[in-house]
Amino acid sequence: MSLAISAKGLTRCFGDFIAVDRLDLSIEEKTIFGFLGPNGSGKSTTLRMLTGLLTPSHGDICVLGLDIPKQSEALRLRLGYMTQKFSLYDDLSIEENLKFMAQVFNLPGREVNKRIDAQLTVYGLDQRRKRMAGSLSGGQRQRLALAAATLHEPELLLLDEPTSAVDPENRRDFWETLFDLCDQGATILVSTHYMDEAERCHNLAILEGGIKQADGSPKQLMADMQATVLEVDGTHLRQIREVLTARPEILSAAQQGARLRVLVTNALSNPEEWLKSQWPDAMKDRTIERVRPSLEDVFVHCTGQRRQ
Amino acid sequence: MENVSALRKVTNSLQRIMSILVKELRQLSRDRPTFAMIVIIPLIQLLLFGFAINTDVRELPVSIVDDSRTYYSRALIEALKATQVIRVVRQDATPQEAENALQRGTVRAALLIPSDFNQRLNDGRPPAQWLVDGSDTMISSAILKLQTMPFSAIEGIQSVSPRALFEVVLYYNPEQRSVVNIVPGLVGVILTMTMIMFTSAALVRERERGNLELLIATPVHPMELMIGKIVPYIFVGLIQTGIIISLGHLIFDVPFVGSIVQMLLATMLFISASLTLGLIISTCTETQLQAMQMTVFILLPSILLSGFMFPFEGMPVAAQWLSELLPATHYMRLMRGIVLRGAEIQCMSNNALYLGVFTIAGLMVAAKRFKKSLD
């Protein structure tokens, strides 16, 4: 496996604020890689540094064999970039926007129309080609943005929170398209704060406060988690939660309907018994069940300690 | 092979410039308010400056105190009325009453004709006196000019002695109508205003709306972006020039002596200079509001120091230096020369050269300042 992106010690400061802190990345070719992190965790800053739009304060970046930001002009033609905010022109129609992007990327004249027609069909916009981009729904805008970013068939796609303004159904379709693109040979880097999206990635990195907290495939991350997940049922879960989270052995507790999902440190060999012995009265009539960790558990475990 | 790839580079670059140009035109045609401004700004300014701001002083209200009441004193009053500079609105019995009227502002000046007027006419003493409201210099200078009126203007006087010393011949604007001088200058002011405003906003708008982040992630070169952005506005500027000059000719009868081609050439040079100035502004401002404020910052000296309002020669040396830096100053000279005096650009090559150098240097500064990064 060769690497599409590798970065070492990537750091970016804005004044005193360290947005990205000594980040190491290796992203394999033809995979979908996810950045999972809360708002302000440095996802966008990292993506911008990888495209050459921001100069790193420290560290080395190599994208598609090019030294970034030195050779970022050469990268432009091989890169598709979708910004977090819709950045095509509201006062141009779908077709005009695509034509503009095609010409900016110097697609040969005779291919332009064929290519645009194909993109419109793939992204389900062929019925609306004359509509102004400003009047489109969130899902349509995002499909248009992806159509524009993939118009010149880039080897690498960087998508900055592409589904933040999109309903679940459109999100599903969107991910199907991403896997199609990946099958056709594109490497895709996507930032998100949705767990279900992160879980679809081949590999992902969890960022918080500009620091990489963990990385690997979702499965591996769940397997490697240094905590046990227990579910406790019964009534008065809010009060129980208060009591539990006061203890350092309990990493987190979150209510999910009629159950309380509790993350307990791996240092305890038998967490169920430990719970019962610590709070004999409160745990008396409850069932305590060990369950499989989800990506959300991993995320909470990685980031929970630092959140203030 | 070398040549082929070089040619390919040039055509690619041209294609990118064209794509930005077409996009800019499309957006402009859909931006109704801006589109309307292109036509309405020159129209309103032309009517405003042409009709309201008129430095020709005519029909000043005056009072007359005629203590002489002779044939000659009445002849003097008639001769003064005939100049159209004054309009007699009242006759006062005493100088005191006339002074009061002056103070109230009902008259701008009062003419005192003493009882020994006839005597004075003969022995060479000043025969009459003007009391003038000197607070507005333009008004006082109009009355002061009456001082030089020859005695022979008074009907019935044959005296040859106190005559005007010089005879003056006026070229180009013999009627001394200020609108003739204002209209060609107005083209400069309006172009400064609209051209700088449009372009300074053009790039900042892309930044504000978030289009720029995508645009700089594409192969577009900063220079291509700059050129693609300014070319559509050259046409806008030419349309505005056409409106002002042709309406100035139709409504205010402003002569057009020179050649249209020469005017277009000078205008194109000035538009390019103004547009690059706008681009520079847009590379150093963050919001459209800031860009607008910077535009006003350039616009004010362009109105006050360029020779549009006040003659260049009357300015202090420091102001003249500042004035020479402004593209509007050079364009003002070119336009007045071409439109009013039928001059050719070659006779005023310094001014044309300045505008050309300003444009090229400005484009380079703007492209250099505009980095393709978000740092």
From TrEMBL, chain A:
Xref: Pfam families: ABC_tran
Alphabetic keyword roster: ATP-binding, Nucleotide-binding
GO MF entries: ATP binding; ATP hydrolysis activity
Residue ranges of domain ABC transporter in the record: 5-234
PROSITE patterns: ABC_TRANSPORTER_1, ABC_TRANSPORTER_2
InterPro entries named in the record: AAA+_ATPase (IPR003593), ABC_transporter-like_ATP-bd (IPR003439), ABC_transporter-like_CS (IPR017871), P-loop_NTPase (IPR027417)
Domain of life of the native organism: Bacteria
Name recorded for this polypeptide: ABC transporter ATP-binding protein
Species, as recorded: Endozoicomonas numazuensis
